[in-house]
């Protein structure tokens, strides 16, 4: 085989440059055809060269075969590329056809099950490329490969052919998912239909095997853990293909409604932690309809039009998950310390739970709860289900976060998702939608808040469930240091979740401004009281944070809020010793225009009507909305008046236009929040005038202007008592 090396090197140079072949196709095919019989002794031979002549021959045969496999894969890739010259493409395609006539697929299957992991990997990749190429050019499935997969999946999960089979299936499904030109769903049906019953039995067998191992309390071997990991990849790809092609395929339906629920037991099985972690992430992406997003080479929008059949399939998964949660599934989910980077380790003082898994569990449960609440119409059932799930979720968080006495019940969102902006916004959006769904279920105003116990307002149900929208929004602003540029990045990025959440919250804020002011005031008060025994923190602190991001100051301002609101003298003295600091607004830079935001465009691209509420009303009726009338703004102001606290606070440098009797206090948190929204409105308006904003923000601007007007009127004392 040594005589093939010069010809292979020359062929490699030509194919690498996508050039025309100097030899005829038949001769090139003879160079490339791998010989599996010449490697019969490779399985037991040392793959490194040795002095022994026989070992040198085996090593040379192995290297030649590896080079042939790499060249075949490269040749198929060039023949499939749109950028290849048509004449060159015909030459390369002819060579591939000649190789296939010489049973290339059979040879690749033989090599894929060899114990040499390098050759097995290369041949599996090459076989996958060949199958995909035949799907695209000949519109047919390679029968020999399909039979190999069916036979392997029919064997025991520990069979040596299972891993090569799963590897080729994963590569083929990835190719189908990534190829934007291959839009023929019928090919997918032809490919998946024969696999359906066999694959389902294989999954059940493998998961049952894991369950049996769990009963024996013995650790699962690394090969089985690797097989489970490949199976999870394959399951996610099948769900992603289901979403992309919008075809109701039996195999995809089985994975969503049967196989994933069966895999819930993995979290309590003696499998490697990375397998449990991977399963929880697959579960999260499946519920969010973002399955397969990590398999795309570039950022890819996963938003799809409504698919009623898919919704029904996901609902079945939701019911299975919530039933498991009711049976204590959350208590079985293991959360280890966060994974260190580059193989290092954290010091004991820096250790913290794996927030990726913790956040994925929370997001999965909340998404499932949101989907189920949309299906329920009876208010009593909604309240019961909401309380049951949220109690278990918060108990789960308290256990893993070390919550002894949380500073605020709603802080968990910022704590868990401090490193994952996209998931934080997704959770905030879900909690807001659930709040609006059950709007009048929440206690709008506490029955009694005694002086000296102002934090009793946190006893409201929305706070105790950790889903009060005003608290979550203020804590979100605090987590980004009230930085307008960060919010602007969220709005103009391809991630549309913040746009949906922000529009929905601003509509609530228009009607709930007094309660927002009360929330800011009490958050500021809680911050000052927590820090009164020591230096006042820079801003209201999140548990576990060692650094704050902005000044915690209670500022005197010409505002008319029904009653004077002051801080205790002990707190005031500590506050006055601090310099007043504010977060400087970031300069708004030029942003690259992106494409339209697709399905969520309806939230901002309204007609020319002055009020955006009618165009963006919720599609679902709120079953609890008619129970009690909305709390009056004056009730909130009266509640603020009950906080009879005395003291002096440093004044903010504003132009005093009101008399002393109309002068009340406005907290630094409220001031920074309002200023952040005002600067955001100005930045969006400026970019829109320059035609640099990626979509029409007219409705968004109307909402922001309305909120800024409320803030200005409050500061000027124009809001009636």
UniProtKB/TrEMBL annotation:
It comes from the Eukaryota. Pfam families: LINES_C, LINES_N. Coiled coil: none annotated. Residues 611-633 are annotated as: Disordered. Residues 675-707 form the Protein Lines C-terminal domain. Residues 168-520 form the Protein Lines N-terminal domain. PANTHER family: PROTEIN LINES HOMOLOG 1 (PTHR16057:SF1), WINS1, 2 PROTEIN (PTHR16057). This is Lines homolog 1. It comes from Xenopus tropicalis.
């Amino acid at each position: 085989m040594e005589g093939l090396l010069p010809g292979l090197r020359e062929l490699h140079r030509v194919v690498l440059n996508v050039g025309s072949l100097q030899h005829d196709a038949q001769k090139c095919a003879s160079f490339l055809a791998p010989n599996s019989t010449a490697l019969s002794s490779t399985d037991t031979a040392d793959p490194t060269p040795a002095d022994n002549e026989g070992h040198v021959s085996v090593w040379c045969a192995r290297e030649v075969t590896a080079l042939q496999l790499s060249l075949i894969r490269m040749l198929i890739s060039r023949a499939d590329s749109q950028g290849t010259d048509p004449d060159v493409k015909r030459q390369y395609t002819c060579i591939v056809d000649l190789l296939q006539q010489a049973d290339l697929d059979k040879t690749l299957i033989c090599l894929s099950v060899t114990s040499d992991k390098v050759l097995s990997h290369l041949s599996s990749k090459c076989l996958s490329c060949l199958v995909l190429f035949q799907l695209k050019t000949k519109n047919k499935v390679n029968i020999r490969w399909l039979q190999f997969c069916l036979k392997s999946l029919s064997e025991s999960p520990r069979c040596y052919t299972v891993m090569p089979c799963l590897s080729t299936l994963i590569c083929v499904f990835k190719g189908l998912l990534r190829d934007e030109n291959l839009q023929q769903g019928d090919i997918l049906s032809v490919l998946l239909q024969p696999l359906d019953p066999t694959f389902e039995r294989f999954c059940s067998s493998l998961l049952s095997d894991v369950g049996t191992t769990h009963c024996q309390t013995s650790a699962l071997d690394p090969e089985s853990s690797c097989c489970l990991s490949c199976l999870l990849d394959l399951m996610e790809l099948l769900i992603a293909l289901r979403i992309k092609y919008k075809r109701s395929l039996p195999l995809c339906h089985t994975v969503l409604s049967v196989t994933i629920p069966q895999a819930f037991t993995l979290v309590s099985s003696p499998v490697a932690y990375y397998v449990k972690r991977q399963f929880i992430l697959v579960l999260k992406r499946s519920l969010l309809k973002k399955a397969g997003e990590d398999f795309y080479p570039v950022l890819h929008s996963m938003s799809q039009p409504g698919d009623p059949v898919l919704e029904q399939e996901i609902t079945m998964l939701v019911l299975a998950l919530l039933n498991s949660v009711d049976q204590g599934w959350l208590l079985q989910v293991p959360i280890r310390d966060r994974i260190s980077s580059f193989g290092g380790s954290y010091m004991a003082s820096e250790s913290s739970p794996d927030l990726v898994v913790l956040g994925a569990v929370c997001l999965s449960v909340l998404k499932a709860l949101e989907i189920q609440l949309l299906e329920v119409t009876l208010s009593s059932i909604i309240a019961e289900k909401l309380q049951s799930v949220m109690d278990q979720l918060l108990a789960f968080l308290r256990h893993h976060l070390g919550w002894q006495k949380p500073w605020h019940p709603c802080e968990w969102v910022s704590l868990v998702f401090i490193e994952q902006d996209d998931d934080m916004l997704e959770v905030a959006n879900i909690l807001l939608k659930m709040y609006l769904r059950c709007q009048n279920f929440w206690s709008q105003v506490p029955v009694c808040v005694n002086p000296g116990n102002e934090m009793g307002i946190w006893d409201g149900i929305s706070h105790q469930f950790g889903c009060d929208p005003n608290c979550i929004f203020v804590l979100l602003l605090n987590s980004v240091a009230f930085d307008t540029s960060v919010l602007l990045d969220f709005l103009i990025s391809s991630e549309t979740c913040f746009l949906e959440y922000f529009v929905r919250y601003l509509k609530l804020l228009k009607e709930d401004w007094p309660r927002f002011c009360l929330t800011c005031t009490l958050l500021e008060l809680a911050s000052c009281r927590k820090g009164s025994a020591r230096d006042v923190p820079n801003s209201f602190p999140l548990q576990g944070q060692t650094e704050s991001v902005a000044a915690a100051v209670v500022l005197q301002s010409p505002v008319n809020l029904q009653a004077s609101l002051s801080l205790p003298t002990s707190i005031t003295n500590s506050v006055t010793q601090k310099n007043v600091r504010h977060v400087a607004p970031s300069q708004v830079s030029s942003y690259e225009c992106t494409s339209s935001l697709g399905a969520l465009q309806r939230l901002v691209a309204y007609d020319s009507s002055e009020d955006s509420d009618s165009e963006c009303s919720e599609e679902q009726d709120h079953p609890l909305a008619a129970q009690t009338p909305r709390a009056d703004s004056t009730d909130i102001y009266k509640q603020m008046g009950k906080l009879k606290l005395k003291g002096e606070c440093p004044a903010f440098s504003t132009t005093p236009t009101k008399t002393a009797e109309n002068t009340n206090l406005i907290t630094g948190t409220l001031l920074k929040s309002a200023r952040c929204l005002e600067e955001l409105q100005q930045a969006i308006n400026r970019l829109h005038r320059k035609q640099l904003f990626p979509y029409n923000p007219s409705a968004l601007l109307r909402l922001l202007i309305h909120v800024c007007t409320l803030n200005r009127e409050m500061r000027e004392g124009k809001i009636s008592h």
